Structures are given as structure tokens and as C-alpha cells.
Amino acid sequence: MVTRVFSRLLFPPIQCAALGTVAGFYFLFYASFALVITVLSILLVMLCFFRVLNSVNFQPRLSRSASFCAAALSAGLLIGINAANDGYNKVNFGIPENNVIAIEGVLLEDPRIISGGSVMASVSLRKSTGKDVRVSSYGEITVFFPAESAAKLKEFGRGVTIFSEGTLRSSERRYLSILQSSSKEAQDWTFSAKSLHIVHPAPVIEKTRTGIRQSLINRFEGKPWSGLALALLLGVRENLDADFTLLYRNAGLSYILALSGMHLAILAALITFLLKKPLGLKVSAVTGSVIILLYCFLVGPMPSLNRSALMYILGVAAILFALPKNALSILSLSFLMQIIITPAAGNSISFILSYIALFGILVIGRALSSLFAGIVPDFLLQPLSVSGGAFLATAGVCGFYFGTIAPVGIIAGLVIIPLTAIFMIGSILWLVLDILSLSFLFDIPLSILYKLMENTASIAGNVPGVSASSSVILVFSISLMLLILAFEYRRRTVLLQLKPFL
Predict the structure, then answer these.
(1) Segment 351-365 mean pLDDT
(2) Residue 333 and residue 347: Cα distance in Å, rounded?
(3) DSSP state of 378
(4) Are 214 and 187 in contact (CB under 8 A)?
(5) Which of 96, 146, 314, 465 is the most exposed place for a label (fewest CB within 10 A)?
(6) pLDDT above 90 covers what percent of the chain?
């Protein structure tokens, strides 16, 4: 009995490594050195213990699996701790911060227009200027440019080297940490620019990307629904109506406006539909991977979108090389790869929510689907299970960052998500027809869809959300998830016992 229960607690090594990385990145990095050493020592002792059991042929398969899990957890912890250290933004101006009067650096992202017309962008420092001195610098800071710089920044785009005079300021950034009271405060730097000078234009490939991106944005200009189309297709939210955004936030639907796995899934489904028949499954999958990589390059670095693209490519690799297609293992491998390649992304709220939401869908969503099979109609069961799993898994993090959660989003998403999919496909077709000067055929349908989505979000937004401390929301959501898993496990056990009699 003990052996059977213990074997069910073991996960595949890749999932154990991901679990260890999560613990190292979000929990143990901020813990004391003694605690980290203690945890690693326990895992290593467990590894040795299981290897000894294996050598004496005591449940060899079980002890071998357990030793692999202990080794994977240990490796994951080290990866997580190192990635957290690498992902922490270290800024060195080369001179005392209060002496900095100008900076030079490379734009790391597409400039964004914010309230008041000013422009915001992340800049990778190259040099800092003080009074009568100019020195090499490094690190990433956020720069706010004056409104009159917007046109020039958009023209030159990401990758351009700029020089600006202005004022340096420090601010605080919150990092999620469970081992401390609620979060870790880290010093961050912003620069209020008073001028803009182009030192070097962006590389050719970046200039080409910026030109294509701006051309697409210009094509949508003047349409009442253009802001939504640009947000869903290119991740450009500066043209999105502020009231529309507020409606979605009040309805718990803000995730729909941020490019993520849902949007990439729609794009991937469209690619598969168009290419599978003429090219076959494998060729269409490879072609789809190339298209998605180009799409991610066009959109820009977004952690949640990158996660989806990476998982898609890993799924394609599983098809091509006949590898196991376990969704949780692919999610775990994607997490490990992304946290190693771009450790700074691990502190992004979109990164955290993207992985937790998909984990909730794969684990809690499946449990809900199993529990309510035959009770809830099939056409509602799957979307409700997906929404419920994602909501429960992300409730604690949303409560921590936003102070409130909106359960009505589970129901509203049943209407909004299909409408969003139709709107995205319609917007893509509108672009194709615009080349042929026939896009007017889709103007009215897209306007109707936009209004329908706006009205649905408005109705859902009138339902009050839940405001409570993040710790209360976290404890309640975890307790509810454990209860769901316990009921589902019990149901599965009963079915296995009855199987011989069915």
C-alpha cells in the first residue's frame, strides 16, 4: 500500500526539475544561505538513500525512479537559484547616480505611448555622462521620452542607439516571494529624457521589422475597432480605447487583451487548417513553426507569447521525432528553457500568470472535467473546466498583484473567447482583403463584433469582484484545488475498483 501511494507521488524527472527550478527561483533565492544548503543536503541524502536501495534490489524500479526525481529536484534548485541571480537587473552607471545627466543606449523594445503623450521604452545602457565625464555603463533602465520624440522613435524603432539628456530617478519594483512577508522590493531606475538624439540606426533586420510593423498599424488606422485588432494581432495596446480596457479589467477579462497562448492557438489553428491538407501533417507543422517564429519576432519579446511559441515548437518536435507528448512535461521543459535563456522574464507578471494558468488548465481543469462529466452538458463542460482551472490557479497571484479577483470572468469568457477568435480571424482576413481593396466587406461585421464584445464585458463588469488580502485568496484557492483533486482521485479509484464488474 505504502509503495503504491509513494509511486503515485513521483513525477517524471523533467517535471521534478521544473518544480525544483520554481522553488529555487521564487522561494529559495531570497532565503538564507543556510536554508538553501539544508534543502540541497536533504535532497542529496535522499538521492544516496534511493541509490543504495536500488543496489540491494529493493523495489529496483521504484527506487531508481525516486533517485532520478531527487537528482532532478536538486539540479532544478540550482538552476532556479542561478537564474534568479542572473535575472536580477544589475545597473552600473560607472559614476555616482546623482551625477548622471545623460545616457546612451539601445532600445530593447518598441516604444509605447503612455498617458499624456510621452513615450516609454526599455533601454540597454552603453554609456553614462556626468559633468565633464563620460563612462561605459551596463544594465537595463526604463526611459520616458517627451511627446515630441514619439514620431522619431516610431520611425527608427527597436534596436536604435539613442543619446538623451535628462534626469535619473530611482523607484521600487516588487518581486513575488513566498518566504518573505509578501514581496521583495528591489531598486529600479528610470530616466526622464529631455531630448533625443539618434546615434546609430537599428540593424537592417530590425529596420525591416519596424517598417512591416508600422505598415500594418497604418492599414488599420481610422477604424473604430482598430485598437482591439492591433492589440490582438500585434500586442499594440496604445490605440485601445481606455474605457474598453477598463470594462475588460472589471469583468476579469484583461488576459484576453494581452497576447498569450490563446491568441497563438488561434493563429496555429488557422495555419494548420490552411496547410495541413496540401502539405501534410509534418510539413505543415514545421512550416507553422517557422511562421510562428517570424510572428513572435514581428510582435516583439512577450514572455507569455514566447512560452506559447516554445511549447508549440516542442510539440512539433515531439511529432517529428515520435517523442512522448505529455502536456505537463512539455510545459515543464518550456519553463526550464525559457528561464535559462531569459531569466529576467521570470519576474514578469505575464510570465508567471501564463505558466500558472496553463498548469491550472492541465491539472485542475482536467479534474473538473472528469468530476462533472455527465452532469454538465458537453458543449459547456470543456470551456468551463478550462476557465475554472485557470482562474483557481491564478487567483492567488492576481490577488497579490491587483488586490481583487473577478470570478464572473469564468462565465463571461464563455462568450468573449469565441467572439475574440472570430474577431481575430476576421481581422486577418480584413488585412488580406485590404491588399485587394475589398476590406470594406468586413468593416460592418467587425464593427458589430466589437460592439457585441464591448456590451458583454460591460454587463459582466457590473458584477462585483472579490476583494480580500492576497494570503486569504491564496489559501482559499489552494484549498479548493486540493479538494477538487482529492474528489477526482477518489472518483478515479472507485472507477478502477468497479472496472472488472462493468
Answers:
(1) 90
(2) 18
(3) H
(4) no
(5) 96
(6) 26
Strands 466-467 and 404-405: antiparallel
Instruction: Tell me the C-alpha distance between 416 and 409, whole Å.
Output: 9
Question: Burial of 129 by CB count in 10 Å (0-12 exposed, 13-18 middle, 19+ buried)?
Answer: buried
CA separation for the pair 416, 191 (Å, rounded): 39
Cα–Cα distance for residue pair 92/136, rounded to 1 Å: 9
Direct distance between the N- and C-terminal alpha carbons of the chain, in angstroms, rounded to an integer? 25
The residue assigned the cell 472570430 is 422
pLDDT at 45 over 70: no
Angle at 487 between CA 484 and CA 491, to 5 degrees: 135
pTM to 2 decimal places: 0.83
Q: How far apart are CA 188 and CA 172, in angstroms?
A: 6
For residues 321 and 314, the answer to whether their CB atoms sit within 8 Å is no
How does strand 197-200 pair with strand 183-193? unpaired
pLDDT score of 187 = 62
The residues, any chain, with a CB within 8 Å of residue 122's CB and separated by 6 or more, are 107, 108, 109, 140, 141, 142, 143
Give residue 488's identity as a one-letter amino acid code: E
Distance CA 450, CA 445 (A): 9
pLDDT digits 0-9 by tens, 265-315: 888 888 878 887 788 878 888 888 888 999 989 988 888 888 888 988 888
| Neighbouring C-beta atoms of residue 335, cutoff 10 Å | 28
User: What would you measure as the largest C-alpha separation in the chain, in angstroms?
Assistant: 88
Q: How far apart are CA 219 and CA 442, in angstroms?
A: 14
Asked if 156 contacts 203 with a C-beta cutoff of 8 angstroms, the reply is no
Interstrand relation of 183-193 and 466-467 (parallel, antiparallel or unpaired): unpaired
Distance CA 24, CA 45 (A): 18
DSSP secondary structure of 90-119? --B-SS-GGG--EEEEEE-S--EE-GGG-E
pLDDT mean over 445-469: 89
